[in-house]
Specification:
This protein is mostly beta strands and about 130 residues long. The chain is about 15% helix and about 40% strand. The model has no long low-confidence stretch (mean pLDDT about 90). The chain binds zinc ion. InterPro entries: CULT.
């Protein structure tokens, strides 16, 4: 499937969530664009949420999501300073306003086959979750 077709499919998934259960949507805190939904939260290394610091000592609380159709993936995949062993990362930006919302992780070929092949880790403080 071409990337654009895949993106369309993912948006349909998000649209169906918003039609059935709008309160489940997770939005960009800056522009309110729906980027994912609560039902896509997944445990990575045993937890839905993680706290990490980057090499510049910035601390991030991130939430792991199986998919985030409203997040645009940017940049080259790299394993440099990765927070999840065996996974490469790319930047994830709000597809509407361009705000940096987190990262997209993809399991590398050396990762054990039982691990989740890909997921998003989005910064809690930059998301608006309806409750
Ligand atoms: Zn946004």
């Amino acid at each position: 499937m071409p990337d654009s077709a895949m993106a369309n499919e993912l948006h349909k998934v998000l649209d169906s969530v918003s039609a059935v259960e709008p309160s489940e949507l997770i939005r960009c805190s800056l522009c309110q664009h729906p980027v994912s939904a609560a039902q896509f939260r997944i445990r990575i290394n045993g937890d839905y949420q993680h706290r990490f610091s980057n090499p510049s000592q910035q601390v991030f609380d991130v939430v792991c999501l199986q998919m985030a159709p409203g997040v645009a993936i940017r940049g080259e995949a790299t394993s440099e300073h990765t927070w999840f062993q065996g996974f490469t990362w790319q930047f994830g930006h709000c597809e509407q306003c361009g705000e940096h919302l987190g990262w997209y992780y993809q399991g590398s070929s050396t990762a054990p086959s039982t691990t989740t092949p890909s997921f998003f880790a989005l910064i809690s403080a930059r998301l608006k979750e309806a409750r």
